[in-house]
Amino acid sequence: MGFENAIQGFTYIVSPSNLILIVIGTAFGIICGALPGISSSMAIILMLPFTYTMKPVASIAVLVAVYIGGACGGSISAILLRTPGTPEAVATVFDGFPMAMRGEAGKALGLAVTASSLGGIFSAMAMVVAAPLLARLALKFQSAEYFTLALLGLSCITSLGSKNQVKAILSALFGLFISTIGLDPINGAQRFTFGQSFLMNGVGYIPVMIGTFAIAEVYKNISQIGRKEDRELLLYQKVSLEILRLRELVRLWTTIVKSSLIGTVIGIIPAAGGAIAALVSYGEAVRSSKTPEKFGKGIPEGIVAPECANNAAVGGSMVPTLVLGIPGSPTAAVIMAAFLIQGLRPGPLLLKDQPILLYSVFFSIIIASLLLFILGRYITREFAHILKLPYPMLGTLIVALGIVGAYALQNSYYDVLVALIFSVVGYVFDRFHYSSPALILGLILGGIAENALRQQLIIGDGSWLPFVTRPVSLMILILTVIALLNPLIMGRKKQTGK
Amino acid sequence: MAELFFNILLILLLVVLYVSSLGIGGRRVSSDHFGPQGFPQLLIMLSIPLLIWVSVRVLTQVRAERRPEERFDGELFKRPIFVCLFILVAYVASLNLAGYTLSTLLFIFVMGKGIRYSKNLRLALFSVVTTGILVLVFGRCFAVPLPRGIGWLRELSFFLY
Q1: Is the pLDDT assigned to residue A237 strictly greater than 60?
Q2: Strand stretches in A75-157, DSSP E
Q3: Is residue A75 part of a domain?
Q4: In Å, how far is B15's CA from the nearest CA of chain A?
Q5: Do the chains contact at A180 and B43, CB–CB below 8 Å?
Q6: CA–CA dist B128, B114 (Å, integer)
Q7: In chain B, which residues have their Cβ closer than 8 Å to the Cβ of A433?
Q8: How many Cβ atoms are within 10 Å of A425's Cβ, its own excluded?
Q9: Tally of domains within chain A
Q10: C-alpha to C-alpha distance for A89 and A77, rounded to whole angstroms
């Protein structure tokens, strides 16, 4: 019965009209993802009106394709411009941009596209094989687990501050602190808003990222114009996407499998999302690496890990959406809205009544993931043309794109101001060897860490024991301790020459 | 020394924020032992000793001139960065007055000149094309309500996006 449904789902998806829709959806997703300020969820919202008149499966297929394309597209601007196109691509910047700076932009993009594709395929398979089981497991995730998960994500700061660990920790603490600005989610108190209404919603991490990464990078390059180092800026002008060779794939297989698994599992957990999946996966790649000191300087594993994870999170987030009717991410929530528009109510009954739907989504993800290889190649090549501009033009374009990207997120002028302020902060951080990535990490994980910690303490009436008595929480906590201590132990071993 | 000044500034800022956190109110949830101010206060208390430690290290390094790779070299904001920052601030300030199209058009040209690009015609053409593409993509295709400016500039912007 299951096999028959799979065959039916496949034949439906590979019909010419549906294939064309998936191609359009994937291309649209990649383009939107590459544009700073246009997130995957916004891309899906923009595509949504076109799906009203489509058949249910076709409409879901095209939206899933946009989702897959968007998750991959964010890496293009992250690698080429140091501006993550989507929140999911934040960790791709850490190694993608340094690799591009070395003149290996094509390789970096190839790694990102290949990893995205493999991550997507992995999560689609996991979705079909273990959807109901995984969804039930995800429901067991409570505040204690969310808190330890945030700690695990934060543990990769030890690898993000290779020059100065203390300053990396300080940067992460600043990020965590910035995340507390705004209304307190538990009792609604205003924190550090100083009477300004625009601060009540807090400080968004995308404008901060645009400021600290993209605009600050322009300042840095401007200060070098005319020097010998200026030539370095020209090294990565010719960009042609290089698809990974089999030999390299074999070398990276452990990172690919592990990151895909992490991405799928975190994608399933409601509200965790691709950005956290990418960060946790990056941290794990550092922890398990024999050369953790190379991370942040343009190492393939540093691109493969977050890109595998953020695309795997796409399939993962579809599991609770389809099986339980609980969206696993904000983007999955928009897709769920599309289900409702089509008159379908996601949940256990939907899968019982329309089993073909699950397989249709599964094959949509697989086809869209495979299409990333082809479409990614062309779109990246076109996008990379801007790198042929002289730096005064390119730098200006990056700033203009960053400003409009910051604005477009919430149509907020204040987000532009945030980007502007943090461009100075990012520049100063860079000059004094503080860590902008660690700042972003703290900002992203701050909300989830604080809320989960306080919620768990409220549930446990002030007791800290659930963090170590709940098996999953304890397991993640142990992983966190290992992740934190590993670089220190490795560093000491190297110092002593053992 | 610039780093030392920066660290001291950060410490002072954190002290001010700590004092500010003492006044955080809101309805008290009885079982919320941390409270709305607990987490930020914890972060500040962790940050200040670390900042002091970093500052002391900077000071000792400046004196002993050891480990030059960790010392800050050169002036912090060089002239081109100041120029760039000034143009950027002017651009952001003008968005709500002159609207997105005119501000961006001028910004791209002036910024290009600020980064010492000498080919005026090419730069002017680049400004027009880039502004056009940005307005088309964000204003038209993605329906982002870009700033429209005031007065007749606002009226004019409705023809574009």
Answers
A1: no
A2: none
A3: yes
A4: 13
A5: yes
A6: 17
A7: 70
A8: 18
A9: 1
A10: 9
Q: Is A498 a domain residue?
A: no
d(CA A411, CA A416): 9
Residue by residue, DSSP assigns A53-93 as TS-HHHHHHHHHHHHHHHHHHHHHHHHHHS--SSGGGHHHH
Q: Answer whether A225 sits within 8 Å of B115, measured CB to CB.
A: yes
Is the alpha carbon torsion for B30, B36, B41, B46 positive or negative? positive
pLDDT of B1 above 80: no
For residue B59, the one-letter residue type is L
> What is the token pair recorded at A475?
């397991």
A458 touches B: beta carbon within 8 Å = yes
Return the amino acid letter for A91.
Answer: A
Query: Which of B34, B80, B108 has its CB closest to that of A454?
Result: B34
Going by pLDDT thresholds of 50, 70 and 90, the confidence category of residue A57 is confident
Residues A224-249, mean pLDDT to the nearest whole number: 61
Which residues numbered 396-435 in A keep a CB inside 8 Å of some CB on B? 396-397, 399-401, 403-404, 407-408, 411, 413, 416-417, 420, 423-424, 427-428, 431-433
Highest mean pLDDT among A168-177, A316-325, A333-342: A168-177
Residue B66: the pLDDT is 54
> Is A187–B27 a contact, with Cβ atoms under 8 angstroms apart?
yes
Q: Does B79 touch chain A (CB under 8 A)?
A: no
Instruction: Identify whether the C-beta of residue A225 lies closer than 8 Å to the C-beta of residue A87.
Output: no
Residue A430 in any domain: the answer is: yes
Contact (Cβ atoms closer than 8 angstroms) between residue A154 and residue A172:
yes
Looking at the complex, does the CB of residue B92 fall below 8 Å from at least one CB of chain A? yes
Amino acid at B31: S
Q: With 0-12 CB in 10 A as exposed, 13-18 as middle and 19+ as buried, what is B71?
A: middle
**CB-CB neighbors (< 8 A) of A428 in chain B:** 6, 76
ipTM confidence score: 0.90
Q: Distance between terminal CA atoms of chain A?
A: 58
Domain ranges of chain B: 2-23+37-70, 79-160
Whether residues B24 and A420 touch (CB distance < 8 A) is answered with no
The encoded tokens of residue A473 equal 């929480």
Phi-psi region of A75 (alpha: psi -120 to 50; beta: other; left: phi over 0): alpha
